[in-house]
Amino acid sequence: MSVADIKKSAESRMSKSIETLKVNLSKIRTGRAHTGILDHVQVEYYGSPVPVGQVANVNLVDARTLNVQPYEKQMAGPIEKAIRESDLGLNPVSMGESIRVPMPALTEERRRDLTKVVRNEGEDAKIAVRNLRREANDALKKLVKDKSISEDDERRAQDDVQKLTDRCVADIDKMVTQKEAEIMTV
């Protein structure tokens, strides 16, 4: 493995950590309705769990209400049950063939709790990035030990990996700050 391979691998894995953080932050609700909030809710469909989006059409009614229209009439009950039992704290209401999902307003205390969750997700992402930096530096040290590269090349490569890490950590901090601001706006 060459220095370029190590850098490229570290960069791609760090960007995957950032993408994972984006997905995790999108699951944290802010009081406003958006169709992606139900993406990770699983419904039992003919014996196997599938996301709500595969068995129903999810769309916005207004800023605080989602409408879930099942593709099959008999799926309304299981979808409603899955949404109710999810960790989102939502209470769906069956309206004949469709299901309305009102988004309750967040209390100040709940907003503070959600900002703690957001910070925790950000910290987890930073830890992942730092672990990837450590792995890349260990791989560079192994190349020096095997006499594949010089110590000067190793030092330059470690500086590059550190710059990449700093850039990723700054991106994570920016995402966390934006999500906190989004949660705290009433």
UniProtKB/TrEMBL annotation:
Location of the protein in the cell: Cytoplasm
> Where does the Ribosome recycling factor domain start and stop, copy by copy?
21-184
Major localisation: cytoplasm
InterPro entries to which the protein is assigned, alphabetical: Ribosome_recyc_fac, Ribosome_recyc_fac_dom, RRF_sf
> What does the record list as GO biological process?
cytoplasmic translational termination
Q: Which CDD domains match?
A: RRF
Annotated gene: frr
Q: What's the short name of a Pfam family annotated to this entry?
A: RRF
Kindly state which keywords UniProt assigns to this record, in alphabetical order.
Answer: Cytoplasm, Protein biosynthesis
Instruction: Quote the protein name from its UniProt record.
Output: Ribosome-recycling factor
Summarizing the function annotation, the protein's role is: Responsible for the release of ribosomes from messenger RNA at the termination of protein biosynthesis. May increase the efficiency of translation by recycling ribosomes from one round of translation to another.
This protein's species is Achromobacter aloeverae
Give the Gene Ontology MF terms in alphabetical order. ribosomal large subunit binding
Q: How is this protein annotated for GO cellular component?
A: cytosol
Q: Which Gene3D superfamilies match?
A: 3.30.1360.40, Ribosome-recycling factor (1.10.132.20)
Q: Into which family does the record put it? A: Belongs to the RRF family.
